[in-house]
């Protein structure tokens, strides 16, 4: 932890927003999502190696996200704590919190935008037994949601768009979403071993009495695959149905109906579940669900194949443009 804090202190305030210039700086009044930037932010994360908690790549990813947000002029807080992992051992958790606001809107209800940045330590959906102990590259299942949010942060932190914000936006990058019990574990399988970062964040937020701060939240998970489909997930509909309908309507109006499909999906244990359950914040999950698969997720989910080959700029554009339109 000490090592991490020294690195973080050294990293603060070193770069310009976006880490590198976007291909097309926006001059218009409308915020424009740049899928090339989002793609690069995903590629940069994957290039670090699997961001498994406790590894150097994980620390470097925290620094990468913080540097980007800091350069966007946002208030940042690294939330640290300890949860219990699937084997009953203590698990260090680092959530990254950042706020985009202006004095004019500070008293309004906040929008929560979130994604997990950690990589799953095990490819436990691999066919070959020996591969199941290798970490997931996590291009889609981790980096994609972060990449889209970093691009949204870059666009909205531009002075023009920032001045036009209608409510404060809290970005939360959850740790340890994918630390859930590995399928090869011989002990008990427990659902609450997933989403450790969001469990910690939601509990702490309530403990501090901040649950009234938020209007609603949007979680992004696996939002980069070329053939992605985002059905209306059960818990999202139960807790934040009006927001689901609005997001899906906007997505369809923008011509992205092949992604934002008018179908419903089974309950999915993801960070939004705990934001809803523990935090009391209506939260929508935009997640790639594939009803053709037994797992409900793409065939390469939690395998070594979750790499940049499954990241598509058209999908990123669909998600990013839809979100920017919903936000304004
Ligand atoms: Zn996962």
Write out key terms for the chains shown:
328 residues; alpha/beta; Aminopeptidase; six-stranded mixed beta sheet; two-stranded parallel sheet; disordered N terminus; binds zinc ion
SSE layout and pairings?
Layout: H1 2-11, H2 35-47, H3 56-71, E1 75-84, E2 90-100, E3 110-116, H4 139-157, H5 159-163, E4 169-174, H6 196-207, E5 214-221, E6 232-233, H7 234-253, E7 264-265, H8 271-277, E8 283-287, H9 313-327
Helix pairs in contact: 1-3, 2-4, 2-9, 4-9, 6-8, 7-9
Bound molecules: zinc ion (ZN).
Zinc ion is lined by residues 120, 141, 178, 302.
- Counting structural domains, the number is 1
Taken as a percent bin, the fraction of beta residues is: 15-25%
* CATH homologous superfamily annotation: Zn peptidases
As an assembly, this protein is: single chain
Listing every helix as H and every strand as E from the N terminus to the C terminus, the arrangement reads HHHEEEHHEHEEHEHEH
């Amino acid at each position: 932890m000490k090592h991490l804090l020294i690195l973080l202190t050294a990293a603060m305030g070193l770069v310009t927003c976006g880490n590198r210039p976007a291909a097309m700086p926006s001059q218009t009044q409308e915020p424009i999502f740049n899928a090339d930037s989002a793609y690069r932010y995903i590629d940069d994360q994957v290039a670090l190696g699997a961001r498994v908690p406790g590894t150097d790549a994980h620390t470097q990813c925290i620094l990468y996200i913080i540097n980007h947000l800091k350069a966007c002029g946002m208030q940042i807080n690294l939330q640290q704590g300890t949860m219990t992992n699937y084997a009953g051992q203590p698990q260090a958790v680092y959530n990254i919190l950042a706020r985009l606001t202006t004095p004019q809107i500070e008293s309004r209800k906040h929008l929560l935008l979130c994604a997990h940045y950690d990589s799953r330590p095990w490819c436990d959906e691999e066919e070959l037994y020996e591969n199941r102990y290798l970490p997931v590259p996590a291009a889609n299942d981790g980096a994609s949601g972060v990449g889209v949010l970093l691009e949204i942060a870059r666009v909205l932190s531009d002075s023009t768009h920032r001045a036009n914000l209608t409510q404060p936006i809290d970005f939360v990058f959850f740790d340890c979403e994918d630390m859930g019990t590995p399928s090869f574990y011989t002990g008990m399988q427990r659902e609450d071993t997933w989403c450790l970062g969001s469990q910690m964040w939601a509990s702490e937020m309530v403990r501090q009495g901040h649950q009234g701060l938020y209007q609603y939240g949007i979680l992004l998970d696996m939002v980069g695959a070329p053939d992605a489909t985002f059905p209306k997930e059960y818990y999202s509909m139960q807790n934040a149905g009006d927001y689901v309908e609005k997001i899906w309507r906007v997505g369809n109006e923008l011509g992205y109906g092949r992604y934002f499909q008018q179908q419903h999906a089974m309950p999915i244990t993801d960070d939004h579940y705990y934001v809803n359950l523990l935090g009391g914040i209506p939260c929508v999950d935009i997640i790639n669900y594939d009803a053709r698969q037994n797992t409900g997720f793409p065939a390469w989910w939690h395998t070594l194949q979750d790499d940049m080959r499954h990241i598509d700029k058209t999908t990123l554009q669909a998600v990013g443009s839809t979100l920017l339109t919903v936000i304004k």
